[in-house]
Every structure is written in structure tokens, then in C-alpha cells.
UniProtKB/TrEMBL annotation, chain A:
Gene3D superfamilies from the UniProt entry: P-loop containing nucleotide triphosphate hydrolases (3.40.50.300)
Keywords for this protein: ATP-binding, Nucleotide-binding
Matches recorded under CDD domains: ABC_Carb_Monos_I, ABC_Carb_Monos_II
Signal peptide (residue range): none
Protein name listed in UniProt: ABC transporter ATP-binding protein
Coiled coil region boundaries: none
Superkingdom of this protein's organism: Bacteria
Phylogenetic classification of the source organism: Bacteria, Pseudomonadati, Pseudomonadota, Alphaproteobacteria, Hyphomicrobiales
GO molecular function, one term: ATP binding
Family under the similarity heading: Belongs to the ABC transporter superfamily.
InterPro entries: AAA+_ATPase (IPR003593), ABC_carbohydrate_import_ATPase (IPR050107), ABC_transporter-like_ATP-bd (IPR003439), ABC_transporter-like_CS (IPR017871), P-loop_NTPase (IPR027417)
Domain ABC transporter: 15-246, 264-513
Length: 524, 370
């Protein structure tokens, strides 16, 4: 590479990255990345999980130091030794996972990240003014713990804007927003662009990128596979660049459910909040029939985790008929009792909840199956039949195409997607009558996601009832026969997939829909 | 130059096997420095300490007597520690088991026959288990910290024993010495090979317990439950295992074994109750459990090593004229180094120069590649 850059090019680029490389042990997370962001553009960074997006961004923001390569800011070579260096240069970052203290107010959280020592009242006033001027209204006096996820994101954005950055990095900003909230955010971003700010927009949602971004850089396996103008591409062509081959979506054959047996039903389930920041469940009714997939949509933190715990029996109900599995009262049964009735569960968190990280896959198979497959896996006097468990684990690994480095590795040694395939496969393997899955493909790459979704559809079509809780609307529209929405601990009536639109579901996710109120009155 | 710890992607199999040996070597080096500072030739000291106590057959019997309670208690503690439950009160369960097991020979000395000894052993185990159930109850009911409650109950048990042997249980014909009557022959644990030394059945109990617990932990569903709940409690709950029940199981199992050790010690090595019946076996067993890598078979080896430090301490006192508290110092250093060396299983050490070149990767400690 030549050492000099022409003056014109250097002036147009706010940030330029050349040959940036980062190595973790034997893994090259970023391999000679080249990237240029012009002034006043929204630049998309596309890539699957594990493509190196987060690593690249951390190097740009100074929280990781690159192995080799250089970063130019306004044509000057700079070293990002820490986030404060990046902030001083004029780079602001809005993280995917918020770094806010729930017990403090919005203004206090903002004050913590500013180091100018201004009094809290001044900061609150500034934040309020800025938030209204950008159409992101925010009450600086409110406790973060009481705010919705979308509102928390506003705090992060305002906090970033208060430092008057030239470049704003947003990491998967819409993954926690309703479609309407996302639209609001896009307007703000377009305004910022009009003011001459640059934005690096990280996402895997292709439609958004096509709509919003001027240019895109696509990463795959740590390498840049192409720069393009997303407006000239189709979603399919962008996906091909990201994944490297065609991604087929799951096929769902329509089904008639008239007269089908009700396999899972929830009648008037309520649950008090377990802690100050958890959501109560309010009078939830639902039913899933044999052959059906019911999707539950909702913005994160609206009670989905609490609902899963109540369904799985990790938290039991006061009355037996609050949860019924295959027509039998299950409310007072623990998770083992519910499994013995034919139910299977896949929690949201893989490591530490669905699987014990430091245990082998075969042991993790035993984890959820020791009771249901007691005869096969546990011999007389409580001795474990290790051979049978190992063979069953290998069968699942093969059926779900789990990629691994050893015959029976520890769960923590697998990538997230492969572990998820194993955990879903572990439950599918016993052909459960009722399957409850929370975020089936969160953080899973496109190929594996398609595999998991197809497997869920096939399970349902073979006569089981499947309940899928997900934040990914595309996923729910792909696989569900009906979609209900959780908001603030309440569940809407299910909308049949033929009548469901993104707009309808989005309104319910925001909590404003007349049908929602009707439902409450009806059951009160 | 400075040292830096870098997290390993997987736990190192090599270092989990080597760590106890490295720790032992470091203890010897530190011990040599200690002896040199005391003005004693370290070689002489180590010979006196570690070799001379096992040069004759009767001395091996003594070693078995010291190692038996350590192994018995430590295999029970290994179950607790593997399930992430911290029973620090084995000394108290040892004492309480000894008290309950001694009810028959002390209060009903006329009761004699082959059934007496088994009954005493069972009562000792029940006594230890019940005493261990107290911190388990407090933890599950009131969420108290079991480390504190189990430790404090040690002193309660010790003072209770002290009061018994000075008061209601004192031998009326014992010239006012604070001790109970001598146990009658049918209440005494038989010796294994009376021709060559004093070692008694207690050592057999220890070996049997180690093998049984090893089978439990490595082959049985219950052992799986213990390991799951210890390593990731939330996954354990997802599996349908109850942590509260595990607290009782682990405490009562280790309490029963400590109680068995207590009654075996009293009926075998001592032959009566007296104000002090243990040179800190219940605490030393914690070291044994960790030195044995919480593996019951490793614990047998570790129990013999720690038993030797007791004998070495006695030898050093008589031959070198230094306090037998040196044994405690050794034990303490050993635990210190064992826990320190365990860091090597999950981390590797590397040297970092003072001025790293700009292109050098500064190691991210907790950062993981995405």
C-alpha cells in the first residue's frame, strides 16, 4: 500500500481505516479491514454474528487496541488508546447493550459519563432541550428502572449527542424498538446527517439499511467482502454478500386448526413482580392447539422472560388450572412434572440457563432429559448410563448439524449458534407434545436460524403445539400461524397470520390498540 | 517487567493435575526458608518432619490413625464444595457426632454386646448430620451465610463437650479429671493388625467412604445434580433440581461423615471423651479436600500427606525442640499455595515488558472475540 493519500480524498473522509487487524489467540477477528466514512453520510456495517463487526467498532472507539493497521481521523493518523481519546476526537457510541444504572435518574446517568463536572440541573436542562429538538422527548428526572427499552436507548443517544460528536456509532439500535419507534429514530438520524454529522450504522436488518444508508461495508469472517450502495442492491443480494451463499427461508404450509386438540392453555395467569425492575404478569390467557405455532411478539422486557418461567414451571402457580398441558392441570407441577406431561422448554439464555457452560454436551443432554428418558439414561440405583447418553448426544449433533472441535466438547466451547442448535435439538429429539421456545434464533447466524425455524415448523405439523416467544418480527411472520403481543405484562388476543401486518403488531407492541383494551374488559 | 494473567480458552488439564504438586514444592521451599530463619538446617528439619515419622511399621499405623478422620471428613466436604455450598463447620459436626455416639458407653456402660459398636457409629453419624442440618436450615429459611453459621457452631459444640466432660458426664471415679469413663471393650473400635500397631477400623471406613463418594460423584445421577447445581445454579433449576434440597443433602452427608469420624476417633484412638478430642481435623480437612482437587481418590492421598504434617510436628517438637505449631504453619502454607496454584488452571502467566511497542497487542483480560 502506498503511504500517501491524495489531499482531496483525505479531506472528504472523516474517518479512514486501513489494514486494521485484530487477533485473539488463534482467531483473526478482523483481518486487514479497510473502511472510509465520509462527512455527512450514514454508512452501514453489515455482517452476520461473528463477522467481526463488534471487534472493529471497539477498535474504532478505543476499547480494543488493534494488532496492526492504522486509523486516520480527518486525514491524520491517530491512536485510539482509550474511549476517552475517541470521545475527545469526536466519536460517540450508542451500545447495543445499554450501560445505565437502573436505580439512578436519566440525568444522573448522563452526568456520570460527562467529565466536565457541570451541576446536575444544568445537565438535565441541556438534555431536555436537546431531546426535544431532535424529536426524542425525554424526562431527565425519571428513574431509568421505570423506563421502557426504547426510552433507555434515547438516554444513550442524548448522552452521546451532548458531547457534540462528529461521528456517531450505533450498534444494532433497532433490535429493541417497535417498528414505530424505529421510524422515529430514522428521522432523527436523517436530521443528524443533514447537519453534516456522520453515522456508522451497524445492523443485520437489510430493509432498514436499504432505506437509511448511503453506503455499506459488508464483513464476513473478519474480512471486508465488499463496499456497495445499499439502495442499488436487493435484500437478497445483500444477504448473499453477508452469508456467502443463498439463504432459504423456512417453508410453512397452511394448516386448518378446526377441532384440533388444545395442548397448551393458560387461563388467567398473573404473577407478582419478583424484583423492583421485573415485570408483573397480568391476567394472561392463551391456548395453542395441536399442529399450531403461536408466536408471541413484544419489545424486550415486557414480561416475556417471566411468562417463560411461569410456563416452564421454574416458577409455579398457586392454582393448578392456570397452566394446562395436554388437558391436565400443570400449574402446581415443577419443571420436571411438566416435562413428564410431554412439554419441552428452550430458554432465552443458552449458557448458564439452558446449558451448564463447563459441562460436556452429553451431560447437558442429561440435564433436561434425565427424568423423561429415565429408563434409557439412568439405570438401577441411580447410575447414569454414560454410553447411552453419549450416543444420544451424538445423534442430536448429527441431526442438527452441530459444528464442534471435539467429539463431546464443553458447552462453552461451542459458538452461540451451534450451542443453540444442540439445545433445540435436545428437546426436538424426544418429540415433545408441547414446545415452548424463548428467542429461538437470537444471535444465531442465518443458516442455523433457517434450520431451527424449519425444525419448529415440522414439529408443529407433526401434531405438537409450539409456542415461540421472539423479538424478531421477521421470524414470527415466517413461522407463526397466529401472533399475540406482550406489552407491559399483558398479552393481546392472537391475530391470525393472514390478518397480521407489521403495522398492526407494531401498534400492539407500543401498547396502543383498542383491541387490547377490549380484551382486558372482556376478561375482567 | 510485570506479570500478567491471561485467561485460557479452556481449563488446562495439565495444570489441574500439576497444581497440587507445584503447591507442595512451593510449600517445601517456603518451609526451608522458615527453618533457615529459625537457625535449623532445612535438610535435617525436612528429614525429621517428613521422613522420620514413617520409617517404622508402627509409625505407619499412627499415620493411618491421623489420616482416617481427615479423609473421612474431606470426602464429605468435597460434596459440599462441589455443590458450591461452604460447610466450614466440620470440626463442630465431628465433635457433636462424637458426643451423640458416646451416649451409650458413657451413660449406659452396662450395655454390652456386638450391637453396641454399630449402634454407636450410626448414632455418631446421625449426630453429625443433625448438627449440620442447623446451618442448612438457617440458609434455606433465612438466607444466612452458611460459612459464618457453620463456623460459629464449631465453638458451640466444643464448649458443649467441655461442659459435659467437666459436669454431668465426668467420670465419678476419675479423680476429678475432666473426662468420661473409659469405654468398655465392646464399645471400642477394633484394631486392624494389633500385632504391628494401633491402626483401627476408622481407616477402612475412610477408604470405603472415599470409594463410595467417588462412585456417587462420577457415576450417579445424584452426583450429576451436585455438579450442575454447583457450577451453574440456574441451569440446575432448569433441570428441575432443587437448590434448597441440595443444601440439606450436602450438609447432612458431610455432617454424617464428620460425625462418623468423630465417634471413630473417640472410640478408637482415645477411648473416652475429654475436653479436646481433635487437633483441628475438621479445619485441616478443608485443606485436604482442596489439595485432593475435590476428588475423593485424590483426597485419600492428600489425607495421608496432611496426616504426616501432624506426625512431623510431633517429631519436630521432640527432636528439634520447636513448637508443634509449625505443623499448623505448614498446613496453612499448603492451602495458600494450593489455592494460588489453582489460578494456573484457568489462567496462564506471561511477562510483559515495560514499554510495549505500539503494534503489540495488549492482552484483553476479559474480552472475548465475537
Amino acid at each position: 500500500m502506498g503511504g500517501t493519500v491524495s489531499a482531496q480524498e483525505g479531506a472528504a473522509n472523516l474517518l479512514e481505516v486501513r489494514g486494521l487487524t485484530k487477533i485473539f489467540g488463534s482467531l483473526t477477528a478482523c483481518d486487514h479491514i479497510d473502511l472510509a466514512i465520509k462527512k455527512g453520510e450514514i454508512h452501514a456495517l453489515l455482517g452476520e454474528n461473528g463477522a467481526g463487526k463488534s471487534t472493529l467498532v471497539k477498535m474504532l472507539f478505543g476499547s480494543l487496541e488493534p494488532h496492526s493497521g492504522e486509523i486516520l481521523w480527518n486525514g491524520q493518523a491517530v491512536r485510539m488508546t482509550s474511549p476517552s481519546v475517541a470521545k475527545k476526537l469526536g466519536i460517540g457510541m450508542v451500545f447495543q447493550h445499554f450501560s445505565l444504572f437502573e436505580a439512578l435518574t436519566a440525568a444522573e446517568n448522563i452526568a456520570l459519563s460527562l467529565d466536565d463536572g457541570a451541576p446536575i440541573g444544568t445537565i438535565a436542562a441541556k438534555a431536555r432541550a436537546l431531546s426535544y429538538s431532535y424529536g426524542l422527548p425525554l424526562d431527565p428526572e425519571s428513574l431509568v428502572g421505570d423506563l421502557s427499552v426504547g426510552e433507555r436507548q434515547r438516554i444513550e443517544i442524548i448522552r452521546c449527542l451532548l458531547q457534540a460528536p462528529e461521528l456517531i456509532i450505533l450498534d444494532e439500535p433497532t433490535s429493541v424498538l417497535t417498528p414505530q419507534e424505529a421510524d422515529k429514530l430514522f428521522e432523527t438520524l436523517e436530521r443528524l446527517r443533514a447537519e453534516g454529522k456522520s453515522i456508522l450504522y451497524i445492523s443485520h436488518r437489510l430493509e432498514e439499511v436499504k432505506r437509511l444508508c448511503d453506503r455499506a461495508t459488508v464483513l464476513r469472517h473478519g474480512k471486508v467482502v465488499g463496499h456497495c450502495n445499499p439502495r442499488e442492491e436487493t435484500a437478497a443480494s445483500l444477504a448473499r454478500m453477508m452469508v456467502g451463499n443463498e439463504v432459504k427461508s423456512a417453508e410453512r404450509t397452511p394448516i386448518k386448526l378446526d377441532g384440533a386438540q388444545e395442548l397448551l392453555s393458560v387461563c388467567g395467569l398473573s404473577r407478582k413482580p419478583a424484583g423492583p425492575f421485573s415485570t408483573p404478569l397480568k391476567n394472561i390467557w392463551l391456548s395453542v392447539k395441536a399442529g399450531e405455532i403461536l408466536g408471541i411478539a413484544g419489545v424486550a422486557g415486557n414480561g416475556q422472560g417471566e411468562l417463560f418461567e411461569a410456563l416452564s414451571g421454574e416458577v409455579q402457580q398457586a392454582s393448578g388450572d392456570a397452566v394446562r398441558i395436554r388437558g391436565k392441570d400443570a400449574g402446581k407441577l415443577d419443571i420436571t412434572g411438566r416435562r413428564l406431561l410431554g412439554a419441552a422448554f428452550v430458554p432465552e439464555e443458552r449458557l448458564g440457563h439452558g446449558a451448564a457452560p463447563r459441562m460436556k454436551l452429553s451431560e447437558n443432554l442429561l440435564l433436561s432429559r434425565y427424568a423423561t428418558d429415565g429408563k434409557a439414561f439412568v439405570g438401577s440405583a441411580g447410575m447414569v448410563r454414560n454410553g447411552a447418553v453419549y450416543e444420544a448426544a451424538q445423534r442430536i449433533i448429527k441431526a442438527m448439524d452441530v459444528r464442534k472441535s471435539a467429539p463431546d466438547p464443553e458447552a462453552a466451547a461451542l459458538s452461540g449458534g451451534n450451542l443453540q442448535k444442540f439445545i433445540v435439538g435436545r428437546e426436538l429429539d424426544r418429540q415433545p407434545t408441547v414446545m415452548v421456545v424463548n428467542q429461538p434464533t437470537w444471535g444465531v447466524d442465518a443458516g442455523a436460524s433457517a434450520h431451527i425455524r424449519q425444525a419448529l415448523i415440522e414439529l408443529a405439523r407433526s401434531g405438537s403445539a409450539v409456542l415461540v416467544i421472539s423479538q424478531d418480527l421477521d421470524e414470527l411472520f415466517e413461522i407463526s400461524d397466529a401472533i399475540a403481543v406482550m406489552h407491559n405484562g399483558e398479552l393481546s388476543k392472537p391475530i391470525p397470520i393472514a390478518e397480521a401486518t407489521f403495522e398492526k403488531i407494531g401498534l400492539l407492541m407500543g401498547g396502543s390498540e383498542p383491541g387490547h383494551v377490549d380484551h382486558k374488559l372482556e376478561t375482567a | 517487567m510485570r506479570l500478567e494473567l491471561v485467561k485460557r480458552p479452556q481449563r488446562s488439564v495439565l495444570f489441574s493435575a500439576l497444581s497440587p504438586f507445584i503447591a507442595f514444592a512451593l510449600t517445601v521451599v517456603a518451609g526451608a526458608i522458615l527453618f533457615a530463619l529459625l537457625g535449623i538446617n532445612p535438610l535435617t528439619a525436612f528429614y525429621t518432619y517428613f521422613i522420620s515419622p514413617i520409617t517404622e511399621v508402627w509409625q505407619l499405623h499412627e499415620l493411618a490413625i491421623k489420616a482416617a478422620p481427615l479423609i473421612l471428613i474431606a470426602v464429605g466436604l468435597s460434596v459440599c464444595f462441589r455443590s458450591n455450598i461452604w460447610n466450614i463447620g466440620a470440626e463442630g459436626q465431628f465433635v457433636f457426632g462424637a458426643i451423640v455416639g458416646s451416649v451409650i458407653p458413657v451413660l449406659y456402660p452396662d450395655m454390652q454386646g456386638p450391637f453396641v459398636l454399630p449402634l454407636m457409629l450410626v448414632m455418631g453419624m446421625i449426630g453429625g448430620a443433625v448438627y449440620a442440618a442447623i446451618p442448612a436450615f438457617l440458609k434455606t429459611r433465612f438466607n444466612t451465610n452458611e460459612i459464618l453459621t457453620s463456623l460459629m457452631l464449631v465453638y458451640v459444640a466444643q464448649l458443649f463437650l467441655d461442659w459435659l466432660v467437666r459436669g454431668p458426664w465426668r467420670d465419678p471415679k476419675g479423680f476429678n479429671f475432666p473426662q468420661t469413663v473409659q469405654f468398655n471393650p465392646s464399645a471400642v473400635l477394633p484394631e486392624l493388625m494389633p500385632m504391628s500397631g494401633r491402626a483401627n477400623l476408622g481407616f477402612v471406613f475412610a477408604l470405603v467412604a472415599a470409594v463410595l463418594i467417588w462412585i456417587l460423584m462420577s457415576r450417579m445421577l445424584k452426583g450429576f445434580e451436585i455438579r450442575v447445581l454447583g457450577s451453574s445454579p440456574r441451569a440446575g433449576r432448569f433441570a428441575g433440581f432443587s437448590f434448597n434440597r441440595m443444601v440439606f443433602f450436602a450438609f447432612m452427608l458431610s455432617g454424617a461423615l464428620a460425625g462418623l469420624a468423630g465417634i471413630s476417633e473417640v472410640s478408637g484412638a482415645i477411648g473416652q471423651l475429654q475436653p479436646s478430642i481433635s487437633p483441628g481435623y475438621g479445619f485441616t480437612a478443608i485443606i485436604v479436600a482442596f489439595l485432593g482437587r475435590l476428588n475423593p481418590l485424590g483426597i485419600v492421598a492428600a489425607g495421608l500427606v496432611l496426616g504426616l504434617t501432624y506426625l512431623g510436628g510431633e517429631a519436630a517438637q521432640s527432636v528439634l525442640g520447636i513448637s508443634d505449631k509449625v505443623a499448623r504453619v505448614f498446613q496453612g502454607m499448603l492451602l495458600f499455595f494450593v489455592l494460588g496454584c489453582d489460578t494456573l488452571i484457568h489462567y496462564r502467566i506471561r511477562l510483559v515488558g515495560l514499554a510495549p511497542t505500539p503494534k503489540l497487542e495488549t492482552a484483553p483480560k476479559l474480552e472475548e472475540a465475537h
